[in-house]
Specification:
single chain; DNA polymerase, domain 1; 4 domains; seven-stranded mixed beta sheet; 11 strands
């Protein structure tokens, strides 16, 4: 709800409590633990132990604003700041409000109209089985494009989770392929963009992509160059897309209908219970060979774990850790001695 520092403090405290090998029943068991702080978090814990709940948490959870913001941030492409603006300035409280008020909202992010149209699909957890099927499809296509590549399923799946909200795939094709061209081969194999599309920023709406003998359709896709934007996570070349995943078990190559990209048509498609496919978010991320270990670490998560690693690298080792590498403050690179460590 806009208080990032308090959210971070709560997340750190929660992670600390989850790591304990025993059930907490009294404050004396945890009062000296690092990570709980000495202020508000301890008060919340004390109240929870005394009464079984926290009044502040219950009050915020049951507030109309919290419910509205939570619903709005569930839309693909809408973050906390946009949701706050929609709620306070435009009186938007739900996904249906966005649809009915679309003409006056001037939402420029192309992802949002797909987010509202396929809201239920994109908020349904993606099972590990589905994620591995998508990984297999990409692997079969990569087999046609190049050899000696690396393909890794990332995020919560790599941490052992059984489901996630999207599918993140890291692709590496060796040290001689530093420009991300192989990702272009995968994304553009249907002919709409091709490998050369990676030289420029391209939007692939209704991109037909052929994966071996199977025929899939990208519902929405956009290629992002390294120079596109500064990301808090990394600056890799990537294709952010929504994939139509067939609902049948064998994923046979059935022809799929073309969909108009205006909001009304997309909403109609999203409400069609007989469409035979489910919209699923898939991110293809190209990683140069020499940055692969750091990318795997960064894309494995979790956010809190990575933050603690970065803090340790900075405060203890005097280094800067990112998803691209481990850097020396002064020399701008990692010395061979530290690299061995």
């Amino acid at each position: 709800m806009g208080d990032e520092q308090r959210c971070l403090a709560y997340s750190t405290a929660a992670a600390t409590l989850k790591s304990l090998p025993f059930t907490v029943t009294t404050m004396s068991q945890i009062v000296d633990l690092k990570g709980l702080g000495s202020g508000h978090c301890l008060k919340v814990l004390q109240e929870t132990l005394d009464t079984g709940y926290c009044r502040e948490v219950v009050s915020k959870r049951d507030s109309d604003k919290y419910k509205s913001i939570k619903s709005l941030t569930g839309v693909y492409g809408i973050g906390n700041s946009v949701a706050e603006k929609l709620y306070t300035s435009c009186n938007i409280t739900s996904v249906s409000d966005i649809i009915t008020s679309w003409g006056r909202l001037a939402l420029n992010d192309e992802r949002i109209k797909y987010g509202v149209a396929y809201y239920e699909d994109l908020n349904t957890p993606v099972t590990r089985e589905t994620a591995e099927r998508i990984q297999g499809v990409v692997r079969r296509e990569l087999d046609q494009v190049t050899q000696g590549y690396k393909l890794e399923l990332m995020g919560g799946y790599r941490r052992g989770k059984s489901s996630g909200h999207d599918v993140d795939l890291l692709v590496c094709c060796g040290s001689n392929d530093e420009d991300g061209g192989s990702t272009g081969g995968v994304v553009g194999s249907g002919g709409s963009a091709g490998g050369v599309g990676l030289a420029t920023v391209s939007c692939f709406i209704q991109l037909i992509s052929s994966f071996s003998n199977y025929k899939y359709f990208f519902l929405q896709a956009a290629y992002r160059k390294q120079s596109d934007r500064v990301s808090s996570m990394d600056n890799y070349e990537k294709c952010v897309c929504i994939l139509k995943c067939p609902l049948q078990d064998d994923w046979t190559p059935d022809p799929m209908e073309d969909i108009q990209t205006d909001v009304s048509s997309l909403v109609t498609s999203g409400q069609n219970g007989d469409r035979g496919w489910r919209a699923t978010r898939v991110d293809l991320v190209y990683v140069p060979q020499h940055q692969w270990p750091y990318a795997v670490l960064g894309w494995s998560g979790s956010k809190l774990f990575l933050r603690l690693l970065r803090r340790y690298a900075s405060s203890t080792l005097g280094l800067v850790l990112t998803s691209h590498g481990l850097w020396n403050y002064c020399k701008r690179k990692l010395s061979s001695t530290l690299q061995g460590r």
